[in-house]
Specification:
Shape: globular
Number of helices: 22
Helix content: 10-25%
Structural class: alpha+beta
Radius of gyration: 28 Å
Strand order of the largest sheet: 9-27-26-23-10-11
Oligomer: single chain
Length: 872
């Protein structure tokens, strides 16, 4: 008889074998992976043991077919929820991420993220049994937030971030993750994903090939802290690697990044950015083909290959480039996430399954979007013109390209608001019938760089048919921006989707065209074959049959239609290949950019005051875009100044001698020194979400006392910036900029005043510092103040930055009210990188702590002596 110790050993060995050995039909009626009482890791290993190699590989691309025999659902790992559930129909649209950062309100950020998670679950629960179940953008693994540092305002995707400061980014990022994922100890409401790991912030045109090599101190003090915070504190479920290479190693296989995640205790899943695995083959030349690329990423630690076919993983195993046990290791995190989302447990056991589809886009959520929009608005200048007083003006001219724009409300990576409120609509509601509003669009955003503008504002789904007459079901669907099929173009992506023959096909693209200006729009189709174009219900081109003698030749087809400004109009483009290769391109030309200036000046002359609503839009800045406006390239900006066309119109309006209020909507910092000198008031609204127009109007009329603060520095000109491709932090952001900004980081005005006194600081347990400061509202109105705390290391440390944000709190104070604000500075905010020991230290000695209303308006200060510390 074996001893008790030997019996225990044999029992444990048998249990281990039971978790990994293939199962037979004689196994238990309820296998361990379907038994919620079993340890989660045992359930994961049991499920893996029941899967074939091909089934495992199919789970490791973003589009997974599922394994019906095992109850693994069809699923797509790719969904988005940056500031509301995106690309999945109607949802509450909160301010763009840069606007959420301008709130400087972590508790509200967490409430917003919780609502986004609720709406994500509401939608997901409603998809059951529908065709969209398991398709892109219809899952619970949301690839948000974007916590890259907005180091350069030229980056078009900076709008997706929380700004330029690592501490602010980390606090808001952690709040977002906690809100989205929920607080249930067993299940996730939804799964957040921190992206893009790491050191990723443009240029867009170089993101697939650029190697970035910032100084080590910049990497550890600026680029990595937010990722670490989201892993350690937020327990973020996913991380997405970046396209770029870091120190010569592509991020998708970079050992420095994977080892950092392991050191921080990350136990979620890791996904590639879409197409970055192919970059290992075509851009970085690290792999000879899909099998080798799959092996490299699996061995590095990557779990999901977005846009990558599963055949590469199977081939890698068959060619013995990777073992099946290594594949199992990478599959486990994906199944762990599925278990945490409750996919394998009884429906009534998962509390989030009780969220009804009706909990999407509710009035309560719209009210929260309005609160967020109000808190995000930053008042940059005010000579007393704002707020407008009742009866002050009888006629106001509202002018500018963003006054009636919905795209300027929602930014990018957005959902569809059910009832968006534009700035013009908000002003009409708040000013009431006693004030006459004269609206004129005025001008386009900028001068066009080319005569014909490609259709590129949105992605347009194309249905591909294996016949010439669009009959039956499509054999493939692929989205395009702009719409192009060119058989002569050499590209890594085939010009036809997989499964589509190269002859006898037809295609139907559909979607919405977004206009800027009112007037006649010219559409041009160049194609071989036949085409039909319908815009806003009108057939503009109907040339389905190729004339005799023109078979296989390129044709140019033209049509025109009058469209309103800032409208979203449906269109449908149909194409039949005919003889020859499949070739078609759709372009469109807009009315002249300055066509509305005369109308704008006429409206302004008859008004008592002018509100100009301009700036930028996500139609111009964003991810890998073709933009045909001057000053823009690939979704980025080549110049940060307000486009010259808008500045010229502002100058003409200013000469009329009327009070001029400038509302700037943008996702990035716009250089506006002329407006700062000439406008009476300036409001920075970012992209304020579905209720943005109401929030702007509330600030204009004084129904809301603004308290938003800049999460970025507003520079005076492009000349203030280092080279866009330079990832050193030297002379960037408020911490290192050597010049004089137009508006500093943390800046924002109020309709009331606040005073500070009696800053006290003392060391706290665990290496933290507790700071208190008394704040009083000494003005004539109730209002919010954003108390900001900045730390400067001891002089002996020779810091590179003047000061660094280490704490903040948004507080509401009634007129005459005082409060003591207490901030706990975590060790995380005090550590600095030591190149000598290649690790973090908290410099010992006398630290200076300053508190105030912005990084350039620090009203009170104090010191605290910190002793030598261990590694932080």
């Amino acid at each position: 008889m074996p001893s008790p110790k030997l019996s225990l050993f044999l029992a444990l060995a048998a249990a281990a074998l039971n978790c990994t050995a293939p199962h037979t039909a004689a196994d238990e009626s309820r296998p361990p992976y379907l038994d919620p009482s079993q340890p989660q890791e045992r359930r994961i290993q049991d499920l893996i043991s029941r899967m074939t190699l091909e089934e495992k590989a199919s789970m490791m691309e973003n589009t997974t077919p599922g394994v019906p025999r095992l109850g693994i659902p069809k699923y797509n790992w790719w969904s988005e929820a940056l500031h509301g559930v995106a690309n999945a129909g109607v949802a509450t649209v909160f301010p763009q991420a840069i606007g959420l950062a301008a709130m400087w309100d972590a508790p509200l950020q967490q409430r917003i993220a919780h609502v986004i998670g609720v709406e994500g679950r509401a939608k997901f629960n409603g998809y059951a049994g529908q065709d969209v179940q398991g398709t892109i953008f219809h899952g619970l693994t949301f690839w948000s937030p974007n916590i890259n540092i907005f180091r350069d305002p030229r980056w078009g995707r900076g709008q997706e971030t929380y700004g330029e400061d690592p501490f602010l980014t980390s606090r808001l990022g952690v709040a977002f993750v906690r809100g989205l994922q929920g607080d249930n100890p067993t299940y996730l409401q939804a799964a957040a994903c921190a992206k893009h790991f790491a050191v990723h912030s443009g240029p867009e045109s170089l993101r697939h090939i650029i190697n970035v090599a910032p100084p080590e101190a910049d990497l550890y003090e600026t680029y990595l802290p937010a990722f670490e915070a989201l892993v350690r504190e937020g327990r973020v479920e996913g991380v997405m690697t970046a396209y770029n290479s870091l120190y010569g190693q592509p991020c998708s296989i970079n050992p420095l990044l994977y080892s950092s995640l392991a050191k921080w205790g990350f136990d979620g899943y890791i996904t590639s950015d879409c197409g970055s695995v192919e970059d290992l083959i075509h851009s970085y030349h690290r792999a000879s083909g899909p099998a080798e690329a799959a092996a490299l990423t699996l061995r590095a630690g990557l779990d999901v290959r977005c846009g990558f076919e599963p055949g590469g993983i199977v081939a890698a195993a068959q060619e013995r480039l990777i073992s099946e046990s290594e594949i199992n290791q990478r599959l486990a995190p994906l199944l762990r996430t599925m278990f945490r989302l409750g996919f394998f447990d009884p429906k009534d056991r998962v509390p989030y399954n009780r969220i009804a589809p009706s909990e999407n886009d509710t009035p309560e959520h719209a009210a929260l979007a309005l609160q967020a929009a109000r808190e995000s608005i930053v008042l940059l200048k005010n000579d007393g013109t704002l707020p407008l007083k009742a009866g002050q003006f009888r006629r106001i001219a509202v002018i500018g390209p963003n006054a009636t724009s919905v795209p300027a409300l929602v930014g990018n990576y957005n959902g569809t608001p059910s009832a968006p409120v534009t700035v013009l609509a908000g002003l009409k509601a708040d000013l009431g019938p006693g004030v006459e509003l004269a609206y004129a669009h005025g001008c386009d955003y900028a001068d066009l760089a080319v005569s014909e503008r490609p259709v590129e504002s949105n992605w347009y789904p194309g249905e591909y048919f294996a016949n010439p007459n669009l009959s039956g079901k499509p054999v493939a669907v692929r989205s395009s921006r702009p719409i192009r099929l060119d058989s002569s173009t050499k590209s890594d992506e085939p010009f036809l989707p997989p499964g589509v023959p190269d002859h006898g096909i037809s295609v139907r693209w559909s979607g919405d065209l977004t206009t800027n200006l009112a007037g006649e729009y010219q559409f041009v189709i160049r194609c071989r074959g036949g085409a039909r174009l319908v815009v806003n219900g009108a057939t503009l081109i109907d040339a389905w049959t190729t004339p005799a003698g023109e078979a296989g030749r390129e044709r140019t087809l033209r049509g025109a239609i009058a469209l309103p400004d800032n409208a979203s109009v449906p269109f449908r483009l149909e194409y039949t290949q005919g003889d020859g290769p499949a070739d078609i391109a759709l372009d469109w030309g807009t009315p002249p950019p300055d066509a509305g200036i005369a109308d704008a000046l006429q409206a302004a002359r008859g008004a008592d005051a002018i509100i100009f609503v301009g700036g930028l839009t996500a139609q111009l800045e964003g991810e890998e875009m073709h933009v045909a406006y001057e000053g823009f390239s690939g979704g980025d900006r080549t110049r940060i100044e307000l486009p010259e066309l808008q500045r010229r119109l502002l100058e003409q309006l200013s000469r009329l001698g009327k009070p001029l209020i400038f509302v700037c909507m943008s996702g990035s910092a716009v250089a506006i020194p002329w407006a700062d000198h000439h406008a009476n008031a300036i409001i920075q609204a970012f992209y304020p979400g579905e209720e943005g127009g109401r929030a702007v109007a509330d600030v204009v009329v004084g129904a809301c006392n603004p308290a938003g603060r800049l999460p970025v520095t507003l520079y005076r000109s492009t000349g203030d910036l280092p080279a866009f491709t330079d990832y050193r932090m030297e002379n960037r952001t408020y911490r290192y900029f050597k010049g004089s900004p137009l508006y500093p980081f943390g800046f924002g005005l109020s309709y009331t005043r606040f005073t500070y006194r009696a800053l006290r600081a003392a060391p706290a347990p665990g290496g933290a510092v507790t700071v208190s400061v008394e704040v009083t509202n000494t003005g004539q109105r109730d209002g919010d103040e954003v108390v900001q705390l900045y730390a400067t290391p001891p002089e002996s440390f020779h810091p590179r930055e003047r000061e660094a944000l280490c704490g903040f709190s948004r507080v509401h104070l009634a007129q005459g009210e005082s409060t003591t604000v207490t901030l706990v500075v975590p060790p995380f905010a005090l550590r600095r990188w030591s190149s000598r020991i290649r690790d973090y230290v908290i410099p010992e000695g006398d630290w200076t702590l300053r508190a105030g209303s912005s990084s350039a308006d620090l009203k009170v200060s104090g010191t605290v002596r910190l002793p030598p510390t261990q590694k932080s």
